[in-house]
Design goal:
Strand content: 15-25%
Structural class: alpha/beta
Strand order of the largest sheet: 7-8-6-5-4-3-2-1-40
Number of strands: 40
Shape: globular
Largest sheet: 9 strands, mixed
Mean pLDDT: 90
Low-confidence stretches: 6-19, 447-461, 906-913
Length: 913
């Protein structure tokens, strides 16, 4: 069987496109550029092999006497069965890797890394990129022969394919390694460790600098640069600070330097506040001085329009060349309240209180609002980063950094656009297993999307895709910043609820009722307390207004009674969270009640507790546990609902990607390539059914007829009664257009139906589909919608004529797990119809889940599947069958890879030779 490493449509891989390269982080935080090898790379590759030590050449070729010229010729020679990638740093080739197509679905790899660069992850990085190219070309496995003494390469392969057995051939000194191109959960976990290590080392100079320079500080003690310097000094930055201004000797008692290169030590961080036109040159000077990171506050780049985008591109190119990570431009700076750092490099009005919430925002104005509201609501900040135009450092980078940040207990995001949303999903899901992520995504409304686009020069994402992405990653989406900060007050200080049961107690009966209503709306259970516990309340407070839950202690309840009630509920095991409502009157003791609440809460460290205090002065937090205090019961309970939802997500099993049997990817690849060669768009029945068959997607037996006579003959073969349908590609709502005839019980009915459909289509002899009548069941719809940025979404919903009317649907993004398939249909309002409703039999939901996983596998293998609509899918007690299917194909675009280690993509000009 012949095969090719180069996809039929070369746009299917950003790495294999000869005009594109990607920048990627090494383990020590330095940046290399990975790109395809060109003919003009001969000299650089020859130098790489010449620099290699005899041992490195021996480990690569199993012999020290290899012809460098022959190997270089092999690398630079293009071919459909050959891919070669080079990693370069500041123009120097530091590693090269290649793969050669073998028979079947394998490709053989070979790698060489510069001796001076070994141990920094270049080998694993190049293999990851080779695997990405191979994966998009349908190659399932990379293989290679490695000397048993090549411990480094064996360790690298083991980290890329954990648990994959190695093979020894006839020669025991040689080991055959196998690396699947599609990483499994263990491989992704190992990739996550590499990614986080690289990101942490890369961002350390940015977020935990030991020295910094403020470039563009005015002598007049005004302007952004001076305000930044003032904030750094006033905040007590623990490192050394250097103002830079070529026209000043000292500023605020600090020696001032004419350039960053004149500073007598290597500086970790440069904060740049100069006109936009000067920034690329400043970054170049920072590179020459080995600065590790830069925050560019200046505006006037890509956010103002295409005319200023080249300046931004020059900034990025210079930064990447010199291993500089950049925040901004067009941002308000960053903050790290860690006592070992104490960095306030923003020009916001106030410094935040130290705490445990990390914040990333694309909008500077929203960032100021978050900091101001956090201070007023008692939320402490660990880290704050204003991302601005996101030319380099993005939300994805910060998610990796915050994974191991001990100061951060929760993460808050304000998002206007996504660069690589599929990678965001992967990274956010990993972080959410440790820490909650709270997000406000702007652009829900048409006006919001319009404003977001003009403000960020990036189109807002489809809202259903954002909701799906967040839900799968465990991200808590908030409607407002206030809602986000209310939830953060709870999630940064309190333990997670063990379940959804909530008890409500207090001296305010009306507030208790409002809290109970809010709890039900938030999906919480206000369970009735046991008779024994109710009796316990009655014993120490015999005149209680209510004891079943909510527990109304009465407006004049004493602090002792309040404390005893909280202790009784906390120790009962009958509640997973507690809402305490207190109202101040002239006849009760609010300060005493607050003290009793704080003392009782200290004895219940496992129980999340929120307080609602009305009518008197109270702190924002109570006691040693920092219990959050809210002004309204709805705010408190809504925050508790978010905490329960997140805890519920944490408790769920992660699920896995099962191996789908009976999939013929090679045949599917030929079908898709041939179909696109004939023209993109809605596909004919033959192509659609052939592709579905490659993935074992169950379709009802369908035969085609092209005339009245062939329709009659086909109907006799199928057996009456039959159904007749139009097959014109892309025809939607064919029933409404007269394109469906049901219950045809004889040849005369078949003839009349054929002529009727032909008339409705205005075709003399259309191609029509004939199918047998099937058993009645539950009609569903299963489909795929593809977005070039977000990838494919898989959908299941109530089908047939109810699809658009009721809108009962559930979505998942890729990759899908068995857990996703199991929960999707359960989210439908119509789910009871599948499990046996009012005496009807239960449908085969296992078969439905298998169908969803097969559709997801097809969508993941082929982003060319632009739209897929299986409607209706009939579920019966012994299986599921799709009665109709529509398929739309289009060439795949340059799309972000969720697992590929790469920074924001920049276009690389082909070298001139």
């Amino acid at each position: 069987m012949s095969a090719s490493l180069v996809p039929a449509d070369p746009r299917r891989s950003t790495v294999s496109d000869l005009e594109v390269g990607v920048d990627a982080l090494l383990m020590d935080g330095r940046i290399v550029h990975v790109r395809p090898v060109f003919e003009g790379d001969r000299e650089a590759l020859s130098a790489l092999y010449t620099r290699a030590s005899p041992r490195s050449r021996y480990l690569r070729f199993f012999s020290a006497g290899v012809s460098v010229d022959r190997e270089v010729q092999r690398l630079v020679t293009p071919g459909d069965d050959h891919v070669a990638l080079v990693a370069e740093h500041d123009g120097l080739a530091v590693g090269v890797a290649s793969s050669e197509m073998l028979s079947g679905a394998q490709a053989e790899i070979a790698i060489l890394v510069d001796d001076d660069w070994q141990g920094e992850g270049i080998g694993s990085l190049l293999i990851e990129h080779l695997a990405a190219v191979a994966r998009r070309a349908g190659i399932q496995e990379l293989v290679g022969d490695v000397l048993a003494s090549n411990v480094t390469m064996l360790r690298t392969s083991a980290s890329l394919a954990p648990g994959i057995a190695r093979q020894h051939g006839e020669d025991p000194s040689v080991v055959r390694i196998h690396i699947p191109t599609q990483p499994d959960e263990r491989a992704l976990a190992a990739a996550g460790v590499r990614d986080r290590t690289a990101e942490h080392n890369s961002l350390r100079p940015l977020l935990a600098p030991t020295s910094l320079a403020v470039i563009g500080v005015s002598r007049s003690r005004s302007g952004v640069g001076y305000e930044i310097l003032h904030g750094v000094l006033a905040g007590g930055f623990t490192g050394r600070t250097y103002p830079v201004n070529p026209h000043a000797k000292t500023i605020d008692g600090l020696d001032c330097y004419p350039s960053v290169g004149a500073i007598p030590e290597r500086v970790d961080l440069a904060i740049v506040a100069v006109p936009a036109s000067s920034v690329p040159q400043i970054i170049e000077e920072c590179g020459a001085a080995h600065v590790g990171a830069a925050v560019v506050l200046s505006a006037g780049f890509g956010e103002t329009g295409p005319s200023d985008a080249p300046t931004e591109s020059r900034l990025l190119a210079s930064a990447r060349r010199h291993d500089i990570r950049v925040v901004g431009p067009n941002c308000i700076g960053l903050i790290n309240t860690d006592p070992f750092v104490r960095l306030n490099a923003t020009f916001g009005p106030d410094a935040p209180t130290p705490g445990h919430l990390a914040v990333a925002t694309q909008s500077g104005a929203v960032g100021v609002a978050i900091l101001d509201s956090a201070e007023r609501s008692g939320v402490g900040i660990s880290t704050f980063v204003s991302l601005g135009n996101k030319v380099d450092v993005s939300t994805n980078d910060l998610l990796s950094y915050w994974y191991d940040d001990l100061s951060t207990q929760a993460v808050a995001l304000y998002v206007e656009s996504f660069g690589n949303p599929r990678r965001f999903t992967w990274l956010a899901r990993a972080l959410s297993t440790r820490k909650p992520i709270l997000a406000v995504k702007s652009g829900r409304s048409t006006a919001g999307r319009r404003a977001g686009t003009s403000h960020t020069a990036a189109a807002a994402a489809p809202d259903v895709a954002v909701d799906t992405l967040f839900r799968q990653a465990g991200v808590l989406r908030m409607d407002t910043l206030g809602e986000l900060l209310d939830a953060a007050r709870l999630l940064t200080e309190q333990p997670l609820p063990a379940g959804d049961r909530v008890a409500i107690v207090g001296n305010a009966g009306g507030l208790n009722v409002l809290a109970a209503d809010a709890a039900e709306a938030a999906g919480l259970q206000v369970v009735e307390l046991s008779a024994a516990l109710q009796q316990q309340f009655a014993d120490f407070a015999p005149h209680l207004a209510g004891v079943s839950n909510p527990v109304d202690l009465g407006a004049d309840a004493s602090p002792v009674t309040i404390g005893r009630a909280i202790c009784a509920l906390g120790s009962s095991g009958q509640a997973d969270a507690l809402v305490v409502t207190l109202v101040a009157t002239r006849t009760n003791d609010l300060p005493g009640a607050l003290a009793a609440l704080a003392e009782a809460a200290d004895d219940q460290p496992h129980l999340p507790i929120v307080a609602v205090v009305v009518g008197g002065d109270s702190p924002l937090k109570l006691g040693r546990r920092n219990l959050p205090v809210y002004e309204l019961p709805e705010d408190a309970v809504r925050s508790l609902g978010h905490a329960c939802r997140y805890a519920r997500w944490r408790r769920q099993p992660a699920g896995g990607q099962p191996v789908i049997p009976g999939v013929d990817r090679r045949a599917a690849q030929r079908i898709v390539a041939a179909a696109l060669a004939d023209g993109a768009g809605w596909q004919p029945v033959a192509v659609t059914h052939a592709l579905m068959a490659c993935y074992g997607i169950p379709l009802l037996e369908t035969r085609l007829a092209t005339s009245v006579e062939s329709a009659e003959e086909t109907a006799r073969d199928l057996g009456f009664p039959i159904v007749m349908k139009a097959t014109r590609p892309g025809l939607v709502h064919k029933g409404e257009l007269g394109g469906v005839q049901l219950g045809l019980s004889n040849e005369s009915a078949v003839r009349q139906a054929y002529l009727a459909i032909a008339g409705s289509l205005d075709e003399a002899e259309p191609t029509l589909a004939l199918q047998p009548v099937v058993q009645t069941g539950v009609e569903l719809v299963v489909g795929v919608a593809h977005d070039a940025l977000f990838g494919s979404l898989v959908m299941v919903g109530l089908g047939g004529v109810h699809t658009d009317l009721l809108g009962d649907r559930s979505f998942r993004s890729l990759p899908m797990t068995d857990r996703d398939a199991a929960t999707m249909w359960r989210e439908l309002r119509a789910a009871p119809l599948l499990t046996g409703y009012r005496g009807t039999p239960a449908m085969d939901t296992d078969a439905l889940e298998q169908l969803l996983l097969r559709v997801a596998e097809l969508a993941e293998d082929f982003p060319e599947v632009s739209e897929l609509d299986l409607n209706p899918v009939v579920a019966v007690p012994d299986g599921v069958t799709a009665l109709d299917v529509k398929l739309k194909l289009r060439p795949a675009e340059d799309e972000p890879d969720p697992y590929l280690r790469s920074l924001a993509i920049r276009r690389a000009h082909r070298p001139k030779h």
